[in-house]
Specification:
This protein has a five-stranded mixed β-sheet with strand order 2-1-3-4-5. Strand 3, helix 3 and strand 4 form a beta-alpha-beta unit. The protein is globular. It is of the alpha+beta class. The structure holds tetrahydrodeoxyuridine (THU).
Length: 143
């Protein structure tokens, strides 16, 4: 993947960040996903007066991707912070639901510091639907 091809994705994440609704934490996050058809979807964090209801930028972007019926090809995250932020644990799990382990995740600050990683690095040994698909041998009682 060329560096140039990230430019559009960063722009989308930056635009999403400007829409963040984060009056409580004041921590504004934007995320953008390039989908398997080349389209870009984005999301921002949306907080709530009932703090625990907050939804991260990444998960909102994933929701938009699902609505388009697409799969993630790469993910970008933008914050205005002293260092780039990785996705939280919940977002890693939600990403792992849809993304191949080699999908690149890059996070950036507004002053250009960058963190480059992958879904597999962020969540090794993920719990996925593969585990649910494995048939458990029936016990005598169940037969
Ligand atoms: N947040 C995100 O949107 N994405 C992350 O990767 C880390 C945290 C949000 C949640 C909350 O609105 C604020 O940042 C502070 O935790």
């Amino acid at each position: 993947m060329t560096e140039r091809s990230w430019t559009k994705l960063w722009k989308a994440a930056e635009a999403a960040r400007r829409r963040a609704y984060a009056p409580y934490s004041k921590f504004h996050v934007g995320a953008a996903i390039e989908c398997d058809d080349g389209s870009i979807v984005s999301g921002c964090n949306v907080e709530n007066a009932s703090y625990g209801l907050t939804v991260c930028a990444e998960r909102n972007a994933i929701g938009a991707m699902v609505l388009q019926g697409r799969k993630p090809k790469r993910v970008s995250i933008v914050v205005d912070h002293v260092r780039p932020v990785p996705p939280c644990g919940v977002c890693r799990q939600v990403l792992a639901e849809f993304a191949e382990m080699n999908v690149e995740v890059r996070s950036k600050t507004l002053d250009g510091q960058e963190l480059k990683t992958t879904v597999g690095e962020l969540l090794p040994f993920a719990f996925t639907s593969a585990f649910l698909d494995e048939a458990k041998p029936k016990t005598k009682k169940q037969r």
